[in-house]
Amino acid sequence: MPPRYLELYRTGELDERISRLQEILASCVLCPRQCRKNRLAGETGYCRSGAEAVVSAVHPHFGEEDMLVGEGGSGTIFFAGCNLLCIYCQNYEISFFREGRITPPEALARSMLELQRMGCHNINLVTPTHYAPRIVQSLKPAIEGGLSIPLVYNCGGYESMSTLQLLDGIVDIYMPDIKYGDSVPAARYSNAPDYFDRCREAIKEMHRQVGDLVLDDRGIARHGLLVRHLVLPNDLAGSREVLRFIAEEISRETYVNIMFQYRPLFRAMAYAELNRRPTPAEYRAVIQMARGFGLHRGFG
């Protein structure tokens, strides 16, 4: 099954998407923050990012989900900045301090092609939302250079419907977080009280576009939805509501990675309720919740 973006390139629709995404940068509404900053003129919004992509790292990644990694690894591109900026961010050097280099579309395309040449099974775009225009722009020269592996959109789940609709037919695998099932912790730790509302809309649209996760005969993901949910201490992530939503409003065939790697980093130590790792019992309770809702793919 070839990547979906090849058809958009063949028909010329990819050029239209590039143009429409580029226009958004003049009054940026790429994410639900709706900052309306003119990033083309050097203004920055909540994500602290201008128009040009800043890349922190490019390499094959062997620590992602098995169906992304396979034998060749997941071709990971880490982008600097973020539209959420959670106070407990596990990659805060990249998200808050924006460590990395400005990378023009042609250079980004070369990185994609090099990852493919190295044998990676996909291009894994980590925290891509605020750079969606430049990523799609880079896709054209990458395709012309022979890119033919799936694109993974590895995001925080706080997405705009209008941006996702412009990515329809471009992204093969959506891999969003669902961080919270409650507005109070979403506001307190990510300054996004509307997080779950926007995330539910986004996940529904992602699933509409790509469906449940499909693997090839080697067990490698080709297209579909893969959801991540990080277990926080003291049930601060609202896991029951998150899992209920996935099972009842998306699909019980959804692949869900329930993650146990939270540790208090960056500013989390200032919040007593976040200043510890979740216990094994807390993690097991979330796994049992997932099974109780009929979910059965994934879990860590």
Characterization of this structure:
The protein is an alpha/beta fold. The protein has one domain: TIM Barrel (Alpha-Beta Barrel), CATH 3.20.20.70. Helix content is 36%, strand content 16%. The protein has 11 helices and 10 strands. Strands 1, 2, 3, 4, 5, 6, 7, 8, 9 and 10 form a 10-stranded mixed β-sheet that branches. The longest helix has 16 residues, at 195-210. The relative contact order is 0.13.
The biggest beta sheet, please?
A: 10 strands, mixed
Q: What's the shape?
A: globular
As a percent range, the share of helical residues equals 25-40%
**CATH architecture assignment name:** Alpha-Beta Barrel
Low-confidence stretches: none
Structural class of the secondary elements?
alpha/beta
The succession of helices and strands, N to C, reads: HHEHEHEHEHEHEHHEEHEHE
CATH superfamily assignment? Aldolase class I
Count of alpha and pi helical runs: 11
* Number of separate domains: 1
The level-1 CATH class: Alpha Beta
Which percent range describes the beta-strand content?
15-25%
Q: Give the terminus-to-terminus CA distance.
A: 27 Å
> Which topology does CATH recognise?
TIM Barrel
Q: Say how many strands there are.
A: 10
Rounded mean pLDDT score: 97
Calculate Rg over CA atoms: 18 Å
Helix-strand layout with pairing:
Blueprint: H1 5-11, H2 13-24, E1 54-61, H3 66-69, E2 74-79, H4 92-95, E3 101-102, H5 105-117, E4 123-126, H6 132-144, E5 151-155, H7 161-167, E6 173-176, H8 183-190, H9 195-210, E7 214-215, E8 221-230, H10 239-250, E9 255-259, H11 280-292, E10 297-298
Parallel strand pairs: 2-4, 4-5, 5-6, 6-8, 8-9, 9-10
Antiparallel strand pairs: 1-2, 1-3, 7-8
